[in-house]
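Data card: per-record layout.
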Amino acid sequence: MDRTRQALSVKPVELLFEEMAGAHRLKRVLGPVTLTALGIGCIIGAGIFVLTGLAANQYAGPGLVLSFVVAGIGCALAALCYAEFAAMVPVAGSAYTYAYATLGEVFAWIIGWDLVLEYAVAASTVAHGWSHYLDSFLGLFGRHLPQRWSGAPFDFDPATGHWGATGAVLDLPALLIVLALTGILVIGIRESARFNAAMVAIKVAVVLFVIVAGLPHVDASNWHPFLPFGWSGVMSGAAYIFFAYVGFDSVSTHSEEAKNPQRDIPIGIIASLAICTVLYILVAAVLTGIQRYDRIHLDAPVAEAFASLGMNTAVFIISVGAIAGLTSVLMVLMLSQTRVLLAMARDGLISERFFGDVHPKFQTPHRSTILVGILVAIVGATVPLKVLADLVNIGTLFAFVVVCSAVLVMRRTHPALDRPFRTPLVPFVPVAGVLVNLGMMFALSWENWLRLVVWLLVGLAIYFGYSQRHSRLALHLENELARGGLSPGGRALDD
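The structure for this 495-residue chain is written out next.
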């Protein structure tokens, strides 16, 4: 089979089901409540506790409420498409696996490479945020972390394009929290899920506290003008705070570990997104009601808003919730990263011997978990991610566009396949999902597009240089073609 034909070949769904029965499959221990908690654990974190400040101050003003609505709609449309795939093909890999079964190997690689960017860079960014909030929390007691051990050794100024030394050695708290969570992830998914559930309970309670305690202090005059930057500001705000929604798609990466994936994965995806969207809208309304949008703090907006009211106890509670929230986000991002790598390894696109190895006792991909933990710890402790963090949003939006498109393709190529959950109102929902998420992508600056293109070009070089030559699908398709069971495009002749 020539390389062009292989790159466009799709992975037969039958192969996906065969892999589920293999020796390297994962343990099914997650129910709908745990999956929903994993989704909430990855969603509520840096977005609500950090990004709301800058989004309100410089992009949307009080219209931040509408920004959360727009971003939530885009995510909801994508979530319905994710739910259909997750129930239909309940294996690890998320959007990567769905693209492989519908659009072809090269598109699957692009999405897998894109998810590596999303989860790894987001995890490193959150590690930085965790360290910052820990320092803020200690500041409530008159103590602070030593500057030499609480920041990156160098920094980058996007405005001037200059790099400079900070005087720090490394961000030690960021490094230590990542290594500690790596140990938990290696031990097992059940233990990881229990730890995450405890963190989720804390931060949801804190978010509810923010809403209830803040409502009596809302001044409606702070909501005027409601759209100081116009609708373009609302869309820019939606594209920026989209980071706050990154995480619901991580539920689909655990399809292979769900007890009843056909039912539980759709519940986990939709429930976690719905709960977080409502909480986000209420927090945005309270935050912009307590303080005028141009006075909202950029680094710790929620805590500083209550500090301006003299509510020191509330600041303490919010700081605890932020630390718990960022901890669970960091853990779920790293957890999801290894599941995507596992799926890619099974296909031979990366080393199966390393990334596909599942521990005989813990039944977790321990080698890739340790590697991911070490890399995230090093990057989170030493590299400033002001520029790279922007890639998380555009990369995730790109993945959502692909998944929505893949639903339309799969309905046409495999109409008879069993779908325990069906995306409603097809083609309206997937088409609307493509348009809304593309709209948010175009609201981002051209620099973000350039960085995405560069990242994808690097990924394509790896694909054509290594992955294509080691693809297990290529061997399978050659055997099928020899028997006359497949068309040259890699699809079954009876499709």
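Known properties of this structure: The chain has one domain: 3-483. Confidence is low (pLDDT under 50) at residues 488-495.

See the next section for split statistics.
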